[in-house]
Amino acid sequence: MHPTIKESLDRSMSYETYSNLVNTLAETNGTTGIEQTEALINYTKLNARRMKRWDKTLKVTEEAKAMISEFNQSVTWLVITESWCGDAAHVIPVLNKLAQLNANIDLKLVLRDENVALMDMFLTNGGRAIAKLIMIDNETGEVLDTFGPRPSEATALVNNYKAEHGKLTPEFKEDLQVWYNKNKGQSIIEDIVKMLCKFQPAACI
């Protein structure tokens, strides 16, 4: 296992610990990360509500449940995040629900600004985009695959908008949140099932 990955794993936390951290920060006008701006604090408050909502309302199809529960490789999903990140607030509760379906999947979370060396190993188009999932084989320590910062459908929306307009506007970011709410986590689930199926095709026929 790469030493940077091992160091970050040693510092990692469970979903429950992360969720409690986000809730505590939301209640005390704080945020994770180096910057402590009013905007990021407000995003943390919003994300605490988003995570609670997904914890209660996310539905996983029986087909997806069956495929995930049959995955028999022991892996860790190490996810890089921050409490202010809107994408992370939608993605991570879904990852938690999926990991709970299979004892072979261990979900761990680390904060980006405290794990910059790790983040810089898994950049997206040269940027430190989160949430980023790193799937690690627990036996070999090898990185098997990655997912993020967004599900593929949302990534396509972002890339198309950037190509047309040059950058993401506040209006587009609001539209993206609406997309997440309408999609109800299903694009994330589909992407994760596809990722697992690469390593265990027999379970996905």
UniProtKB/TrEMBL annotation:
SUPFAM superfamilies according to UniProt: Thioredoxin-like
Superkingdom of this protein's organism: Bacteria
InterPro entries: Thioredoxin-like_sf
Protein name: Thioredoxin family protein
Organism annotation: Hyunsoonleella flava
